[in-house]
Amino acid sequence: MNKIPMTEGGFQKLQLELKKLVNEERPNIITAISEARSHGDLSENAEYQYAKEQQSLIEGKIADLESIIGRVEVIDVKSIASDEIRFGATVEILDDENKSKSKYQIVGDYESDIENKKLSISSPLAKGLIGKSAEDIVEINSPKGLKTYTVISVKYI
Asked: What is the pTM of this model?
């Protein structure tokens, strides 16, 4: 079984999501099914059918999260001492074309969130950055064509 690298923050977020599903959403849907069942004929009861579909979705999410959590390898990012970009690095880069700066943390696939600057290790940008150091120039093939970046800093925070 393949281990899934993840930061401590990402792991805690998954655990909270699982806890919410098990302790809140599952009981709520069971109550909704029971209430819908009390309305009579189940074959034409849209409320019951909807509640059963929601239950199936919730149970699927729970099973998926339990499987993922069981395979997680939590990486202590703060203990990494490296000048090279690796999993968990917080990287500041300069877009050489438009001179804009961006800062990202390279994280696992299940914790990526571009709005919060969490970049999946499987993304083209992260793949291009892995192994690089400050002041290195990186060329990335993107949907918009070849992009060139300069690594400004690499930190493990």
From this structure: 0.82
